[in-house]
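Annex B. Sample input.
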Amino acid sequence: MRKKRIHLGFLLGAILGSFIFLGKGEALTPLEGYLPQIEGWVIKGEVLKFSPENLFEYIDGAAEAYLSYNFQTLVAAEYQKKDSQQTVSVEIYDMGSVKNAFGIYSAERYPESKFIPLGLQGYEEEGVLNFLVSHFYVKLLSFETENSGENILRVMAEDIVERIGEKGDWPLPLKVLPVQGKVANSEKFILKNFLGYHFLHDGYLAHYRWNSIEFDCFIIDATDGPEAQRMVDQYLQLKKEGGPKKIASGKGYQLRDRYYQNVFLARQGKFVVGVMKIPDDQQELGLIYLQALLKNCPGSYQ
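Annex B, continued. Sample output.
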């Protein structure tokens, strides 16, 4: 079980703070308006607000990951139950877009997490509830609460979802990834430096298992068709030692990579799709999944 993270901001609030409650008549920033209001629970100390310029003051070493997904704003508050030591911290991260919110959410979840139907998706651990809703990533953490805080975390989370209203929809490229063989909840979004290359951005990746074979499929959502073609050309140029060759029976290229074994790559409109980590004796499998990716690319986006 991963350890809970205790933020210094909340610790300071616990030492110095007094109790306040956000009433409906008070003037709030839009993000503050999403903070839950639950009977019997009050906000302890001040509502904390952070921007890209000072996020490191709150989460320090983790700030770079959030900033890499174009983090916009954070509000954080600590709640305490009246006449009790039970507390819950609430963090609402505005990531600016659903894809960026999914990106940081997907970086912190695990395929084996206990997932729940909340917003677009959420997951629970002992004393922890994190979820994705619209372009927000929301994190709740309980201390000294009964039943690991599961009940109050659910109540607060549902209140936040109701206040936000529109839960959003999964980014379109996720729907292009083939379903068969995909490891549930293994999907990730990498906004910058996809596969470690500065010219690749907006990449979606998922892990697959077919019998005893494990491999990855990906899709890159370029700005337009010409940029997608430039991505392919640059990638092939960098991989000359891998002997890239055109696929004889269909669209795309195949090459050998020292890290990703056999890689299959193609462009469809503004999308670059690929399959990697295919063993030498399973190249037909790579071709099958590449064709599935190409088939799933929506024609209206070509």
